[in-house]
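User:
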Amino acid sequence: MADDAPEDSKIDGDIAKASRPTFASLEESARRAEAKGVYFNRGPHPFAKVIESWLEDKDEDDYEFGELAVAQVQVAPEADDRADDAGSPPVNTNMTDDAGSPPVNTNMTDDITDAVLEDIKEACAHLTSVLPHSFRSAVADDAIALASMCTSLNPKVPWLTFRLEIVQNNACVRWHQDVYCGRCIITYVGPGTCAASDRDVDWDSIAKEGDNTDCVLGDKTEQMSTNAVLLMKGSGWPGIRGEGLTHRAPNCCENGTECGDGSSNPKRLILVSRSGCTTPLSPVPTDEGEEARRSGSYVHVISTYVPPILIPPHSQVNCSRNCATAQTREDKEKHRM
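Assistant: Predicted structure:
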């Protein structure tokens, strides 16, 4: 780490392995203030071969941003004074008890109402309906578990966005931190996301233009195993100290279509769950849509192949193949893992 790096960046936030390979243990570990990234391994996916075979005739360029499907759920009321200009909640620096550790809640659904949980389940079912029956329910279960965990960790963050992505060549191999609250990533097949603890980051090098590979020493890079579950805190995470977790996509072939040995980048099927205070998939405003958002529970689902659906009665739904998005292509592409 550079000696003249900003003082608030010299925080020994780390990436840590959960004590047990469960979502409850992941949540417990994520409540540590110094934990900026937490993961657990669970071995190759039982349907890895099936997933790889299913991906053979699919290409990321056939889909907008490589996205097979997207779903967005409002899990808490919005508050005008809760978000800053970056779309993230204001930092709360008093999140710990007298011992310096935040209280641990291992029941991931304590803070979720039945109606919101039903919304999450409906959205995840719609999201995964693009997948074959053989592994559809397994991915849906993962998405529900991630949503429950994220909502328990940050019950006042209003929006969850789910994505199923195919990633091969169009990914961000620059080291960076996310500006929003946080993300969870599962790479079902292919190489996993790379991350680094604060103490292993050269804060001068990470900000330079172009290739910043050398800002983290190679042997200090923590690369996720295939099918691992990773939670990454962003710079908007309530109570974050300094920046969010430093991470990048695996740099298989320098973003080219072929590696040095003539082989292609491996295809990756990724499930992403993002928490934030903004609505990156906000549809074109309508009176009905605005009323739904004000009333609390709101689900917005888009997909390449799946037709619009209705999720009654507690949710108001707006589904569209062409929605107005608050994110630019450049912003969205640079955060693909």
